[in-house]
Every structure is written in structure tokens, then in C-alpha cells.
What does this fold into?
Amino acid sequence: MSHSTEDPKGKRQGKAKGRPLDELPPALPSMWRALKRGFEAEPWLISIAFGLALLAALPDALLALWLKLLADGLLEEQRGLVMVASIGLGVSAAATWFLRVISDRTQRRFRDRVTIALESHVARLQADVSTIEHHERPEFLDRLAMLRDQVFVLDHMYMSLFTTCGWILRLVVTLVLLFSVHPLLSLLVLAAIPTVVMSTWRPGVERAVEERGTVSRRLARHLFELATTAAPGKEVRVTNTGDELARRQREALDTWYRPVASTRWTSAFWHSFAWLIFGLAFVGAVVFVASGGSSSPATSSPGNVLLVLAAGSRLSAYVSAAVGEIGFLRGFWLEGSKRMAWLEDYAAALAEHSEKDVPRRLDSGITLENVSFAYPGTERNVLEDVDLHLEAGSVVALVGENGAGKSTLVKLLCRMYAPGDGRILVDDVELARVPAPAWRERLAGAFQDFHRFEVPAQHTVGLGDLPRLDDRPSVERAVARADAGAVVDSLPSGLDSQLGPTWPGGVEVSFGQWQKLALARGFMRDEPLLLVLDEPTAALDAETEHSLFERFAAAARGNSADSGESTGRITILVSHRFSTVRMADRIVVLDGARVAEVGSHDELMAAGGQYSELYSIQAESYGL
It folds into this structure.
């Protein structure tokens, strides 16, 4: 079973079946898992598509036999043999066309269906991972970027595998026909081995070089988006950086392409040399039969010469097609299926094995014991030895300079990350033993780095509580809590308005309006255990922010009409505005990854420490 272990430095490292998750799983087991995934999605379609691919191979492979029989029948004046050969040629031609049409239609439907299944599978795997650690590690980002590119072609890989089996069946039939003329002719397959080896080796080598340059390619794509998309468009033009972005994008592409081009030239040379060997062997086989090289006179008959010419020439086409498909599988599907298997293992390694239920209400609160945390790929602790108790029913403000760890602490409480050391307790239960999805169902809040969901306004708010996505009264209450009624009223169709000017009928929304809609989304859940407000009103004026936070604080203390039965809710405020912070029950001052001070506004002012100093500076500047 997948599990997580601690390395000697105390950092969590996922493993699956004894293999570190920074390694890709083996190719063949990954391919088998991808095949099973396709079969589970569409068992009948995949079986029919595979059967048709094999059946369609036979008429084409038997063409050389019908030509031999036709030549023998004509030369020996055997009308029956001529008739059989003619019927065989006609049936082969008609069957090839008919089976190709049926197979193409079946494969198209299978690809459509399995594409939906695979894309949903990959999206679900990423969404089901309880943490967002993999979004912070460059090597994982590169791997996920390649998987996102390859998932759109993984559906073709099933067809490629079926087609490969069809070409192999053609090869087997052709070799049997050649063997029937003379056993030595079957040695032509040995001459094809170098082509198979080269075609199998070539894509893997090229793919490895391409993957080593993924960072440069990802940088080129990022620079291209900066130069061509609307969001950074104004700054690009004001700063006149368009040419510089284009230059750097070209440099990044060149950095990626130079080693790729060199590798392709080298592999192309050896690939061509392998085909030269096969071509010489094929010419030798034709000369051997035509010149009567065998002791048997029947071997050099015109029918057999025609069979060798037809079968041998088709053999080269079959080998070319087979190794091409094998190379395609090697270069794309095996790599894509390996990455998909890696993501499955990664998600399984971080799967929840929790046995504790989320409490219906908080009695004591949330406690952090000796919590330390460093972001993936870094050594510096963002939080270090944090001991903190957040009392049930309280309003807690987090303050500190940028980089002090405020948002990181919020992410740990939301289980976006797990502490590197220490633990977090919800009442008396360790948070790590509570299922992350169930815990997050009892969270609510809004963040400064909110996402702009370009969907109808009702849905961009309703997504905050998915079961009530289409519950208009609930959405309207959330809008009222966020004081976003004016934003909705300004939209042409109110909550039914499509947001985002790039969509048909979509409307442009300012940053401040987006922020209020995001705030409303954070208030969709009526009775969360933890309400997080991580600078969600940075674009609003101080007076509006103060009024909103005052209302939220009153609700948290059970003094609001819409608060319902008390759940012991803890409200966390993160703000740089001390006029807002001072209303909190407890203020936590973070400095240098540690908790510097904890207390009420009056207590901290009386202590004359860091909070008092910062408050006084801001009060003097803003006339508080």
C-alpha cells in the first residue's frame, strides 16, 4: 500500500510500492495500467476496435498470395486457379475498403469517449491530492506540464497499439508466404531487426533530450503568453517590453531546440543506415529467387518471383509502418502512460488514511504545537517552532511584515500543506488524522490571490458551496454578507450575467468587483468551523474593509442574525490595516518565521513591543 515516509532531514517524501515518487514507473506496467483504464472506460468499443484492426490486416497481407496464384493460373492455363485468384483479389480490395471505413468510425467514437475518460481521470487525480506541494516543485511542474500536453493524444495511443498489432499480423502472414517459397527468405526479418532497434531507440533518445529542456520550453510558453494575452498587455505596452519578451522567448526556444536538433540528426543517420541494410537484403532476396539460386526449379517459377516481389516490397512497407508505430508508442504513449501512472501513484501515496471525523463544533479550538514548515525545494523555514492556541469562537488577526509566514500559517490550517515538524490539533484531534476533503467542507473564506471564475455571476459566487450552486436565495445572502450587492446590480443581467469579455455576451469586471464577488464566494457556507480572510479586501478602501470585517467579527461571536447555532467558529483576519486588526480578540504578531507577540490590541499596545511600534507608525500616517 502507498505510504509516506520521513527522510533523514525530516521532510516528507512520498513512496509507492517501495519506489520514490520522483522516479517514473516502468514502461510496460504503466502501459498495461493505461490499457486497463481504457478498457474500464469503454470495454465493448475497445474490444471491437481491436478486433477490426486485426481483421483489416488480413486482406492486404494476402494480396501477394492472390498475385502468385493469378500468375500461376495464367501461365499454366488453369481457369479455376485464375478464378480463385481473381475472386480473392476482388474480395481483398472490397474488404480492405469496407473494414477500413467501419474501423475508422469505431475508432473515432472510441477516441472521443476515451478522451473524456482520460482527461477527467487526470483532472480528478490532481484535484484529489490533498496538498498543493506538487505545484511548488519545478520538477513536478515540468512532469505535469508534459502530462497535460500528452493526455490530449493518449487516446490515439490505443489506436496506435491496435494498428501496431495489425502491422505485426501482416508481417507474420508475409513471412509465412516467403517461407513457403524458400526457408532462407524468412531471414529477411533479420535484416529488418536494425530498423526495429533504431526506430525503438530513436524516439526515446529524442524524447529524453526534449524532456531535459522542458524548463526552457515552459519559459518560452510563459513569455509567449505574456506577450500575447490581455492581462499583461497594458504593462507590456507602457514599459515597451514587447520586443524584449519576444527576444527572450526566442532565446528560450533556441536553448531547447539546439540539443534536440543535434540529437535528431544523429538518430536520423543511424536510422537511415539501418534501412540501407534492409534494402540490400531485399534486393538480394529477389535476385536469389529470380536467378534460380535454389536447387529446386519450382522456387524460381514466375509466380514465386512475383510473390517475392509483392510480398518483399510490402514487407518493407510493413516493417516501416510497424516500427513507426512502435516508435510513436515508445516516444509518446509509453512516456505519457508512465507520467499518468506516476500521477496515480503520487495521488495514492498522499491518499487519505484518516480515521477521525470532523467535529460538528469547536469546543477548545485549534492548537499548533512546535510547528515548522519550509516550502518544497527550499531549506529555509517559513515557520519555525510555532506554538499557538486559537480559541473557539474567537476572532484572531495575523500581522507581520511581508514574508513573515502569515499566509503560510493559513495554508497549513487549510491543509494545503502538512507541517514539516510539529502538529496541529483541532480540539484534541490531530488535523492530519482528519480527512482533508471533509475538513475543507467546514472551511470558508477568501484570499488575496483569488481566482476569476469566468462563468455566470451566480455560479462564480455559488462555487463557494457547490451543493448550493443554483440556490439563488443562498447566493443572494452571500452577496449581501460581502456587501457586493452594488456589483451585482451593475451587471446587465444581475446574477445571470456572463463574466469575462472573451465569452459571448460576457461583461468586463474590474479588479475590485472581482474581489467582492470572490469575497461573496467565501461566505456561501453559513456555519464553517474556520473562516479565513487572507487579505481578501486589499483592493477596497479602509472604511469599507473595516465595516465588512466588523460584521464578520460580530457573526463569529454569535451576535449576527444569520450566524445560526454557534459552532465555535474561529475567524482569522490577515490584513495590513491596523484599523481592522484592532477589533480582533487576539492578535498574533509573526516575525522572522516565529511568533513574536500574542495578545489583544490594548495588551500589545501596553507592552510597547513590535505591534505597538507598527501600529503607531500606521496611525501617524493615516490619522487613526
